Amino acid sequence: MSGYDDSQEEEGEGREESVETIHRELTAFARRARSTAARMHPELSLVAFTLLAHLADQRGCRATDLAAHYMLDKSTVSRQVAALEKLGFVERRPDPDDQRVQVLHPTPSGYEVLTTAHARRQEVFRRRFADWPQDDLTRFAEYLVRFNEASVAYDASAS
Fold it and tell me: Cα–Cα distance between 126 and 121 in angstroms, integer?
């Protein structure tokens, strides 16, 4: 019985060590992502770039929808949207269903910034993974999908 208890304890310690490594590496990844975003377009923060990409993916949405989706304060979204508008990357249009509501849309310049950044990121990732075997890439992609799906489920249950 003590052998069983020892193996459970070792597994628990190994699990904690793995979780700590994951935390450390995800933190480093987030720092690099912010730094990379700053190099891609120096006037855009990572948050502004993310909001612009979301507007493109959704083909426009309200600022309140952005705040809710990213769990950001409305004032944060407002500042980021104002910066995007000032740069000419976002425009407001009346909602066809409710003229009182403004819908945010990327401008042609906004789409151009996103297209350029996407091409640069793709190239960076191609180089970063150039020496990875296909099996490792497939597994890593599956783990990231699984992690993000679990994160969405966790966030939904926490609200």
Answer: 8
> In a structure prediction context, what are the per-residue pLDDT tens digits for the chain, which is 159 residues long?
555 566 666 677 889 999 999 999 999 988 887 777 777 777 777 888 899 999 999 999 999 999 999 989 999 999 999 999 999 999 999 988 888 899 999 999 999 999 988 888 889 889 999 999 999 999 999 999 999 899 877 777 776
Reduce the secondary structure of the chain to three states and give it as a string: CHHHHHHHHHHHHHHHHHHHHHHHHHHHHHHHHHHHHHHHCCCCCHHHHHHHHHHHHHCCECHHHHHHHHCCCHHHHHHHHHHHHHCCCEEEEEECCEEEEEEEEECHHHHHHHHHHHHHHHHHHHHHCCCCCHHHHHHHHHHHHHHHHHHHHHHHHHC
Strand partners, 104: 61, 92
114-117 CB contacts, 8 Å cutoff, 24+ apart: 114/52, 114/53, 114/56, 116/40, 117/40, 117/41, 117/49
- Non-local (6+) Cβ contacts of 32 within 8 A are none
